[in-house]
Design a protein that fits this description.
With about 550 residues, this protein is α/β, with parallel strands linked by helices. About 30% of the residues lie in helices and about 25% in strands. It has 19 helices and 25 strands.
Length: about 550
């Protein structure tokens, strides 16, 4: 058979084009992919190469590339890898080594749990998660029964928010704490002139200083345990709100050896040792670790009445709460952090603390172009102060705090201040971005509880019917952005993660329902089917295989 020269050239061109198809590592197709790009586009398919998103579009991507692996999702929903904008990743891992008190309904139940555990050979008995607001008698517990049960072993029971301990006499003796001990940044609760064993905020460090040090093996196990839990829940980046130099460097070494894969935005705990080490160096930035921020405590928690308010607590008329960091120290610290070109992320629950931070930040950041300093929690805010948030001062909030606290928050602040509490929509209107997290292990790790709480403003039982202060609910799109691209923005990482776009890390998850369309009641029960980090499968739900 003879061909004309023109036909031969055409055949050669076609053969050449088919033979030169580019190679990729993975193609996901027949999917419902929320890219969370600038236009919030929805795609059908994505190609991944060298750990990055390479092409995003329709199913014809299959015809464009040679691929080592392809995955037909049959319409399943794909989301960018989720980011928890404020959590305690290492703390979550440590919790796996402690007695879990979350959900206990009385102090008697706590005592039963402690007695039923194998604690005989422990050098210290540690537990976490109690909350007196969940008990019929909503009063702080007393150490007396702990002294009887455990006279020779220190007992340290941490409140769910991490802002109070209940300890026994043995622990007090080890820390040399007595009725004469003074504290300017916290409280030692007393009753009838005697210590109750409840320490709020500052004095807790006296206990920490005498608790036996964990082994390196235990610390590594804590990090690995936390990673496993987070991948299962669809998290691919976590913002750990307060880590020591030692743990940050341990994380870096584990990541370098590929033993730890989780991406971590590590906030440096505010201590002289930590600051002297990191602020005198350039920020650490790798694909997995970002160290460029300092976590500071402005005040305590609302549940333990440690948050600092402009006016007294509604249910404790003589109490305004207490600053953990005094105004002068806060000002000096802010200047030092700004001079080092680091980000300052400060815990602020009470309206007085928020106002103090807005004033302090504004003065220090006056000549800074794009600092993205954060107010963590931004919980109780005087409505007149709301406009202090801006593109320089950004809110990082936890929607499940609103639905956990709503049962008693008004008791603490009263009806006139509750309108400025958990005001996520109002904050978004001022700053144009808002980071969403959980504060786990204070709340559960599950980010779909965050999604539901932000959109519905209800707890998991569906209460209240109309939603708690529903005017401050976020839309589904805003909420997903707060868990992805906006959280990445708060971390200066929006160019590499937070959305499914070309040349960004191929971090994504496959879930069992379309959270953007499903009845919002069902969104909280979303199951993660698979979690990918840089195109690598790091979690798969065995029930779906």
């Amino acid at each position: 058979m003879k061909y004309s020269l023109k036909v031969l050239i055409t055949i050669l061109i076609l053969n050449s084009s088919f033979g030169c198809k580019k190679n990729v590592d993975l193609i996901i197709y027949n999917a419902n992919i929320y890219t969370v790009d600038d236009n919030f586009n929805v795609a059908e398919a994505v190609a991944i190469k060298n750990g990055l998103f390479y092409d995003i579009g329709e199913n014809d991507i299959l015809k464009k590339y040679n691929t080592k692996e392809s995955l037909d999702l049959n319409g399943s929903t794909v989301l960018p890898g989720l980011i928890d904008a404020h959590c305690h990743f290492y703390g979550l891992g440590l919790n796996q080594q402690e007695i879990d008190l979350v959900g206990t309904k009385s102090f008697d139940e706590i005592l039963f749990k402690l007695k039923s555990q194998s604690v005989e050979n422990k050098t210290v008995i540690k537990a976490r998660g109690w909350d007196q607001n969940d008990w019929d008698i909503k009063e702080f517990p007393n150490k007396d029964q702990l002294d009887v049960l455990f006279p020779n072993t220190p007992v340290v029971l941490e409140r769910i928010d991490g802002h109070a301990y209940l300890v026994n006499q043995k622990a007090l003796d080890m820390a040399q704490i007595s009725t004469a001990t003074k504290s300017n940044n916290g409280t030692l609760l007393k009753k009838n002139g005697k210590l109750t064993g409840v320490l709020i905020d500052g004095p807790m460090s006296l206990i920490d200083n005498v608790i036996p040090e964990l082994s390196k093996t235990e610390k590594i196990q804590a990090l690995l345990d936390a990673e496993k839990i987070c991948f299962k829940n669809g998290l691919t980046t976590v913002d750990d709100a307060g880590l020591s130099k030692e743990i940050i460097l341990l994380i870096d070494s584990l990541q370098n050896k590929k033993d730890l894969k989780m991406r971590i935005y590590a906030m440096i705990s505010n201590s002289e040792k930590n600051l002297d080490y990191f602020l005198n160096r350039k920020p650490i930035k790798t694909e997995k670790l970002n160290v460029r921020s300092v976590k500071v405590y402005g005040d305590g928690a609302l549940g333990s009445r440690g948050a600092t308010l402009k006016f007294p607590y509604h249910d404790d008329k003589k109490n305004y709460g207490k600053l953990v960091t005094d105004p002068e120290s806060l000002k000096k610290l802010a200047s030092r952090i700004a001079d080092a070109n680091f980000q300052m992320n400060t815990h602020a629950i009470g309206d007085s603390t928020v106002k103090l931070l807005l004033n302090t930040y504004s003065k220090v950041l006056e000549k800074k172009v794009d600092p993205r300093w954060r107010i963590e929690h931004s919980q109780i805010i005087d409505l007149q102060d709301m406009e202090g948030f801006s593109n320089k001062i950004l809110p990082s909030v936890q929607p499940t705090h609103a639905t956990s606290d709503m049962y008693w928050a008004e008791d603490r602040v009263g009806p006139s201040r509750i309108d400025g509490a958990y005001s996520y929509k109002a904050l978004l209107n001022e700053s144009n971005v808002i980071g969403l997290g959980t504060d786990f292990p204070v709340e559960k790790v599950n980010p779909f509880h965050t999604f539901y709480a932000a959109v519905a403003r209800k707890d998991l039982s569906g209460y209240p019917d109309e939603g708690f202060q529903f005017q401050n609910a976020l839309s589904r799109e805003e909420t997903l952005k707060g868990m992805t691209i906006w959280a990445a923005y708060l971390n200066f990482e929006e160019g590499e993660k937070g959305s499914i776009e070309k040349n960004k890390f191929a971090d994504f998850i496959i879930v069992d329902r379309d959270i953007m369309k499903v009845d919002i009641k069902k969104a909280a029960n979303t199951t993660v089917l698979k979690t990918y980090l840089s195109g690598e499968l790091v979690y798969s739900n065995t029930k779906t295989n």
